[in-house]
Each structure stands twice: as structure tokens, then as C-alpha cells.
Amino acid sequence: MKKYRIAAIPGDGIGKEVIAAGLEALAVCAQADGGFELDVTHFDWGSDYYHAHGVMMPADGLAALKDFDAIYFGAVGAPEVPDHVTLWGLRLAICQPFDQYANVRPARLLKGISGPLRDVGPADLDWVIVRENSEGEYAGQGGRSHRGLPEEVATEVSIFTRAGVERIMRYAFRLAQGRPRKFLTVVTKSNAQRNGLVMWDEIAAEVAKDFPDVTWDKMLVDAMTMRMVLKPGSIDTVVATNLHADILSDLAAALAGSLGIGPTANLNPERRFPSMFEPIHGSAFDITGKGIANPVGTFWSGQMMLEHLGEPAAASRMMRAIEAAMADPSLHTPDLGGKATTAQVTAAVCELLKQSGSETM
Ligand code: IPM
Ligand code: MG
User: Fold this and answer.
1) Does CATH place domain 116-126+134-255 in 3.40.190.150?
2) Per residue in 290-323, pLDDT tens?
3) Domain boundaries in the chain?
């Protein structure tokens, strides 16, 4: 039987609760499939580790992760540790060296969930946002001088490379090509950001020539926020810079009903390094320990992990279980306006997965 090695990094806050739920559902899913096993190793890295050791993960952490087939990640961020320390010390410390340059974020208004937009149903909101995940505004270039003086200066330099933009553009065109509508929107702010993002537009036009069957258009990021709210049905696949897509994906998640259901794949498409799968939400200390975190974003991220591992039948089982659970409002956690607990949603999804084991796929 095939065995995949998974590194689980629950991290902080509700990350621990949702990864436990996600691993439970993935184990049931693998059992229902019968064709593969998941061999999970836990890593206790995060803010607790930081308090004990002064670092978010050990110096040889990447070497420890390198040979896994995938990483299943919860969340980072804790009230007593500055956010840039937790982020750069763990999440970006994995994403960047492992060159997980394609951050893929589907957003769908699932049946049974009512989003904040009037008269918008599941058919009108089925998007995938492709976020450039290795450079741009998150390149980490810059510095601070004259700290504390009136002359203090800080720079935060965005980096756009032809290689970096071209590879994410190709990834996005290919993804759009594989979806029924074959439609891509390239988002920039190339009116104001007249260097890097003008290059984005030029590279988009060049790459588009290799995908003649994909229809594409361009949008400035501010106008894109309006289009997402006012004409959601006019959007399918979206590609944007690291920061722009970060912002758009929160909007997308909110329009799809909750940040709690959104999944993410941080992919190294060439598979030189393991890819990492995580819910889009953060550590949510306000609800940590209450047992009400929505595990659906983690289940859906697990579904993306199964796709990436090459288990499409199991991935579709997982997606159908998520859809069936969300169609029942009694299984909605408080972020979706319901009263269900993490444990109830997890038990229901596991039960649906078990039932799917007796069906022929
Ligand atoms: C996300 C998050 C992170 C990001 C935070 C935690 C720094 O918002 O994954 O979208 O901006 O990359
Ligand atoms: Mg974000």
C-alpha cells in the first residue's frame, strides 16, 4: 500500500484544534479509500516553542521537513509574540526556502451557507485565487535606520523578477485552463506601481499567447474589490501579487461565508521541496480552547493535499463530505452563524467519509 509521509505543524491557538480534527478526517478518508496510508509526524513548533527556546523552530528544522511528502500546517501568531516574529520565524521560514511560490486559495459559496451578498448563490461564487508566494511585497527587503530619532527611516522594498512573475503567471494560466470556464483575471496596480506591475502586465500578455484557449482580462486591485462584491459571477481564476492576493483572499473568504472555511495550498509545483497545506484563518486566540473553531478550512486544505499527493478519488470523497456537511445548517460553527462545535462537525464529516467507503467511486 502506498504510504505518504506527512509533517503536521499545528502551531498556535486554534491551529492545534483544527489540525487534530483534520488529521482525524484524513485518516478516515484514507481508510475509506483503502489504497494509501498517511504516516504523520508531529512537530511542536510555534509560539510555545519560542517561549521555551527563543526561536519558532530549530535551526535544522528545514532539514527535518525536507523529505516529507507534504506539510499540514495550522496557524501561527500569539498575543505575546510580535506577529512579524511568528510569521518570519515559521511560516515564511518554510514557504520561502522551500520555494512554495504558488499559493492557491479556492473560495466557493457552498450550498447551505448564506454569504453576506444578497441574491448571490453557489453558482455565482466559485473562484480560485493564485497568490504569488515567494517575492513581491513579502520579499523581506528593506531596513531601518536612525531608530527612534525624528529622522528615522524604514524601507520595505517590493521585488518582482521576470522569472518569479513568469512562473506564477504560467501556473495561473494552466490552472484556469483546467477549469470549466477557462477564464483568468490578472490583478495589478500598474497605474500607480509603474515598474514591477507594468512588467506583470507585459509578462501576462506574453504568457497568454501560450494559452490561446484561456480568456483573460486585467483589473486594478481596487476595482477588483468592487467587482468581487458587485459582479462575483464574472470572476473565475485570479492571479495577483503576494500582498494584493493576501487582501483579496480575505475578502473572498468573507464573501463565501467565513474565513473559517477557506483552504490554502502553498505549492512548489516542480516538487523539489514539500508543499504545505493550511487553513487560511489564523490562530484566533479569542476562541482558542472553546472547541468552536471551524475545522472546514483544514478539511478542505487536506483535500488539496490529497490532490497534490496524487489521490484524486480520496480528494473528491473529502470534498463531497465537506459539501454534504455544510448543506446542513446544524453543522455550522458560530463563525457561520451556527452553534455546532469542532467535534460535532468533525464527527459528521468522518461519518460521511465512512459512508463514502461503501459506495463505489
Ligand atoms: C495569510 C495570512 C498571513 C499572510 C499572515 C498570517 C502574515 O494573512 O496567509 O493570508 O499575510 O501571508
Ligand atoms: Mg491573509
Assistant:
1) no
2) 999 999 999 999 999 999 999 999 999 999 999 9
3) 1-106+262-361, 116-126+134-255
